[in-house]
Amino acid sequence: MLVILFAFLSIFQSFLSSKEVQDYLPISTFSIVALDPKTGELGVAVQSKFIAVGSVVPFARAEVGAVATQAWGNVLYGTTGLELLKQGKKPHQIVKMLVEIDPHGEHRQLAIIGSDGNVSNHTGKKCLPWAGAKIGKNYSAQGNLLTGPEVIEAMATTFESSEGKLGERLISSLFAGQQAGGDKRGRQSAALLLVRKNWGYGGTNDRFRDIRVDDHPFPINELERIYKLHCKIFPRPDRLIKK
Question: How do residues 174-224 score in pLDDT, each as one tens digit?
């Protein structure tokens, strides 16, 4: 296991040392990673004034954890973070490891939650203001280039006070963040990723809900519309009545 871990981190560090990592646009956004302890679902929801944000920010693996990587987003944080969670590392250990070996760590924003609800995040000192995060029971809400801290506070308060399915609670949290001011630049795309073992299509994968709105004037509203349609067509397996 240690050999695999060191090999993984070595590849990660060598890539981050390359010039290419500096050439991408920053993903200024707000997101939330969370766990539903009742069902075991893990999820990420995100909104941004950035095209196809769902192709960059959210990562999740059933019975392992979920990751949101943003600001000067680094997708290796997602794949590497999940692999380290699988190998038994705790979120706070992973965040520390990834940021320390990343020469651009102070430009990154990252949140990781494990399948046990353990959570950690990082907001680099060079993230565009306002930038920050809040950790609560079974979740972390974070954002950068926001109108102010009230965005994260609204997201956290809404998630904590809401009930129902994890997907609904995550989308409600996004709505709250947007209503509190959201991304300074406006809005463009949103995404929701939910995983749970064997809850994916046909019961043969773990990707339960993977919904993306890549370019829309009201991305969260469109995300909610598609989510409700998806729920109607593909109900939760534990809600299906066996005859």
Answer: 999 999 999 999 999 999 999 999 999 988 899 999 999 999 999 999 999
pLDDT at 4 > cutoff 50: no
**Which among 38, 61, 69 has a CA at the least distance from the CA of 169?**
38
Upper half-sphere CA count for residue 126 (Cβ side, 13 Å):
10
Q: CA neighbours within 13 Å on the CB side: how many for 230?
A: 19
Which residues are bridge partners to 119 per DSSP?
113
Residue 65 phi, psi dihedral angles, 5° rounding: 165, -170
List 111's β-bridge partners, or say none: 68, 121
Architecture of domain 25-236: 4-Layer Sandwich (3.60)
Token pair for residue 58?
A: 């959210």
Name which of 128, 80, 119 is nearest 100 in CA terms. Answer: 80
Q: Three-class SS of residue 161?
A: helix
Cα within 13 Å of Cα(5), Cβ side? 12
**Dist. CA 16–CA 214, nearest whole Å:** 27
Domain range annotation of the chain: 25-236
Pairing of strands 108-114, 65-71: antiparallel
Q: What are the Cα distances from residue 237, in Å, to 62, 91, 231? A: 15, 29, 11
